[in-house]
Every structure is written in C-alpha cells, then in structure tokens.
Amino acid sequence: MEEVLTNPKDGYYMNRDVFGSGGDFITSPEVSQMFGEMIGVWAMCLWEQMGQPDNVNIVELGPGRGTLMADLLRGASKFEKFTKSLHIHMVECSPTLQKLQYKTLKCEDEDVSGSSGDKRTVSMFSGAPVSWHTTLEQVPSGLPTIIIAHEFFDALPIHQFQKASRGWSEKMVDVADDSSFRFVLLPQPTPAILSLMKRYKWAAKEDIAKLEQIEVCPKGMELTHTIAKRIGSDGGGALIIDYGLNKVVSDSLQAIRKHKFVDILDNPGSADLSAYVDFASIRHSAEEASENIAVYGPISQSQFLGLLGINFRVEALMQNCTDEQADLLMSGYWRLVGEGEAPFWEGPDDQTPIGMGTRYLAMAIVNKKQGAPAPFNESQD
C-alpha cells in the first residue's frame, strides 16, 4: 500500500494532481471554502486556550493541493494577532503536490540575509513563513503546535489478518504464475502480529469474537505516538478528521479511480488506496504515548462543523450571492454535513450531492493543561 501510493517513481500521489473533479476523488476542502474556514475557527479557539502565544507551529499532514490551509488563512486574515503567530509546516512527500501547495498559498521567496542569499518562503495570505517536510519528525520542536490531519490516516498502510484454522494469518500480495497479483495467507507469523496483539489488548472480547478479518495500522499507531509526545511536551493539539469507525476495523481496504471503486490489484499506482481509520486505536495509542494529553471524540463531522458555526457561515454567505452561487453553496454545505442524498437537489441525478456528515469523524488530541477544545466541550460525547 505504501509502495503503491508513495513510490518515488510511480507512486499514485507522487507525480500528479489527484484531487478534484478531474482527479480520482474530491475531499472536503475541494467541496467548499467553509470547511477550511471552520478548521481555522477550531485552530484559533485552541490558540486562545493556549493563552495566545506569539509563536505557534501550525502543521498540516498530507495537505493535498493546499486548499484547506489557504481557506484557513484567508478566513482568519482579520485576526492579525493569530495569523502573525503562525509558522506554517506542510508535511508532504510528493514534489508535484508541494509545487501546487506553493501556488495555492500564494507563496513568495524573500531574501532574509542580504548578501548570504538565505531565503525564506512566506504566504502572501498572511505573511506567515512556510516550510515543507517529508515527515512530522522533521518539523522543529519547542513551539506550541497545532496539527491538522484531514484524510491522512486513511492512506497509511494497513495490514489485514484473516482467521484461519491455525489462528490469525496475515494476508499478503503475491505474484501468480501468469505474473498477475493475487492475495495469499501466510502460514508463519509476520512482524505485524505485534500490532495485532496490541489491538487485541485494547479491544472488547465480544468485538473480536465475531470477526473473520481484522485490519491494523502500525504506521497510524506510530504517527499517533509522535503526535501525542509532541503535544504532551510542547503544548497545543491535533485535529484528526477522516472516515472510519470508533472500533476494530474488519475489511475496508478500497481502491478509487475516476470517482469509482476498482479492483485493488488492478494496475497498482493508477488508483488511490485507502482504508477506514480505527479511531479507537488512535485514542489508545495517544494515551499510551503521553500522560500529558487528553483525547476527545470522535464526533461526527456534521456535529463538529455544526457546533463550530457552519450554519451561521452558510447563511452569511447566502446573503451576497447569485442563484448559481447559492446552489453551489448549498450543495457544498450538504456534502459536508448531510447524510445520504440531498433532498433539495433539482439538477441531474448523477450529480446529486451525497453527504459525508456522518461517515467522517473528528477527534482531537490536546495538552491536558488547556482543557477540552472547542467544539468537543459542547458535544455530548
């Protein structure tokens, strides 16, 4: 899975723009500007709770085209004290997407040292410095940190185990005699069995008993450890929004090409691979990593955005727009917070907006000193 998505030469994300209607799938920031604006509200509330520090790292993991960060900065532009405190860090391994993010954030390179030629990159949205890294570990520590992981965990490689007569066997990809790919079960234990045992320890016995297959994500556990340790020592918080479950995930690995599901083994590297995020595993991993953090949620994306005030935002935007813009706004709003097909839609059936409001979940990991973050302090979680 990791090879298919991030191989430097042929990885799915590495050499193309895969987002939007011309790509293979559309994410929330591409649906409506309101998504990034609401994440900006969340980040600003967290910054307030931290005591409005003068310098903050704001980190986005897998920022896609950079749309979310651009909408966040544009939406927060009136709050100068907040935007002036930001040091933006984009964690992105794709050179193609890094270039797109540079453009989307309206970046320019400034000479900072006169004759020595040292340059820094700043976003013209806010004047904030912008840096790129391939891993979270490369982001400098020591400052309070706000981390945003929107549709990032779902692309981390998972391991699948299947119940067999000898116990749990890992499902692997093999090459058949005709050179095609096929799935096989390994007779001997694999290193990932350690992650399965850890997941077992965290799960209720009855949850595991009825499953024939289990997915675990060791990379997700490791990343959560890194996030929790960073927030535990430096202060701040992380927001994770993704589609998934608040329990053990059984069989969710899928491939999407041109907005349609395709066979996972068909022409690897040409389709996006993703799996459901196991939010319960994220909670346990974070709590295991640091005593200084607290985990809130998950709550549905619909509840998260609603409590942050997206309803007021859509009403305000509707005041000053044409009928066509109003249709786009309502369509985007429904996709973000609705469930199923939009009841108000009068356009072509194949373009009916489908809501992600309940399929996507939001979870926060924050430093305990700061108390419950918005809007989890209002949710009945």
From TrEMBL:
Gene3D superfamilies: 3.40.50.12710. GO terms for biological process: methylation; mitochondrial respiratory chain complex I assembly. It is an enzyme of class 2 (transferase). The lineage of its organism: Eukaryota, Viridiplantae, Streptophyta, Embryophyta, Tracheophyta. This is Protein arginine methyltransferase NDUFAF7. It catalyses: L-arginyl-[protein] + 2 S-adenosyl-L-methionine = N(omega),N(omega)'-dimethyl-L-arginyl-[protein] + 2 S-adenosyl-L-homocysteine + 2 H(+). Its main location: mitochondrion. PANTHER family: PROTEIN ARGININE METHYLTRANSFERASE NDUFAF7, MITOCHONDRIAL (PTHR12049). Belongs to the NDUFAF7 family. InterPro entries: NDUFAF7, NDUFAF7_sf, SAM-dependent_MTases_sf.
